[in-house]
Amino acid sequence: MEGIFTYLGAIFGHGQMLFVSHLILTAIIILFIAKMATKSLRAVPVGTQNVVEAFLGGVIAMGKDVIGEEHARKYLPLVATIGFFVLINNLIGIIPGFESPTSNINVTLVLALVVFVYYNYEGIKAQGAFTYFKNFVHLGEMNPIAKFAMSLLMYPIELVSHLSRIVSLSFRLFGNIKGDDLFLWVLLMLVPWIIPMTPLVLLTFMAFLQTFVFMILTYVYLAGAIALEEDH
Questions:
Q1: Contacts by 119-127, CB closer than 8 A, 24 or more apart
Q2: How far is CA 25 from CA 52, 97, 189, in A?
Q3: Contact at 8 Å (CB) between 83 and 211?
Q4: Burial status of residue 29 (CB atoms within 10 A of its CB: 0-12, 13-18, 19 or more)
């Protein structure tokens, strides 16, 4: 946000370097947490290892209801990595003097494209290209001519629906985090520093909520792509 003070902005200035510097900071934090969690692995986890294992267990539990435990574990590396990255990015912006990289559309768009490409790839791998694209539309039993006519109408709609997921994933996260950042900066300019503590709790909740939404939608799209049985 041009004209707003940030610690890294004082060093690198406002612009692309500010955005890149916050991404690098996020990467450093993630690597530090990963290093602390794996530094001395124990059968009974404590400290950072306990927190990270609890996070991974929560991701599996979340995916279990959507896609089944086997597939939840299979796609854990993707979903947990995205979730961890999004969460750290979201939380950085809550600290006065820093800016959330997820408040930049370039970051959220790349994340959405990764999810879009991957779930379509998994769907094609699981079903085959012809079956996967054929199952975009379920028309049931009807007259062949009517079925052909309906497919001409429905396939473009379904194609647009799938492409709109890129917009939905990227703009939902971008819009919410950008709005939270702007709200926090306005609040800090209007009132003393001690008063915004309550809104900071709300913003922290929103950071976790947006991370959860992004992860659960990733599982939902993967579940639809690999055409799981109804009992899952």
A1: 119/218, 119/221, 119/222, 119/224, 119/225, 120/162, 120/225, 122/222, 122/225, 122/226, 123/224, 123/225, 123/226, 123/227, 126/225, 126/226, 126/227, 127/226, 127/227
A2: 19, 13, 25
A3: yes
A4: middle
Closest CA to 219 of 130, 91, 118: 118
pLDDT in tens, 49-107: 999 999 999 999 999 989 989 999 999 999 999 999 999 999 998 887 888 889 889 99
